[in-house]
Amino acid sequence: xxxxxxxxxxxxxxxxxxxxxxxxxxxxxxxxxxxxxxxxxxxxxxxxxxxxxxxxxxxxxxxxxxxxxxxxxxxxxxxxxxxxxxxxxxxxxxxxxxxxxxxxxxxxxxxxxxxxxxxxxxxxxxxxxxxxxxxxxxxxxxxxxxxxxxxxxxxxxxxxxxxxxxxxxxxxxxxxxxxxxxxxxxxx
Length: 188
Description:
Helix content is about 60%, strand content about 15%. It is α+β, with helices and mostly antiparallel strands and about 190 residues long. A hairpin with a 2-residue loop joins strand 5 and strand 6. About 25% of the residues are buried. The model has no long low-confidence stretch (mean pLDDT about 85).
């Protein structure tokens, strides 16, 4: 395998690790209403005789900083959506108001905020571990290419340096996102 392809493959895998961590962190509640809070939970609704994602059945919006509203496209699915939201991991009790479902976001306690920061940091560490694993895989592939005489030993050192620079770049990216998310959670 071409060493440049190995670098591209490694970088792509590292970017996917960062994207995954960001997706996971977006589901962590910050005390502020956000449609992604409901959308990223992948709330499944039993409607029309099958299981469907909430965003396929309703419009999700945030008219106020501490309120998420869910407006079903078909009013007959309102009770099904309410049930799915009640049973989800959101921990928010939905209130039906005619054709509209309101999800009031409660204020987070200081202790709960600290717990959420710990969760975010655990997610970030899992992402860093994945990135370091990707680095190891990339370096192993480069060493294999060197053994097969596809690259020289000097080239191997240069490519290993490139892989380490990619690793540092993506770990720094995760760290920056964690700092931002932590500030967002702790903001009262």
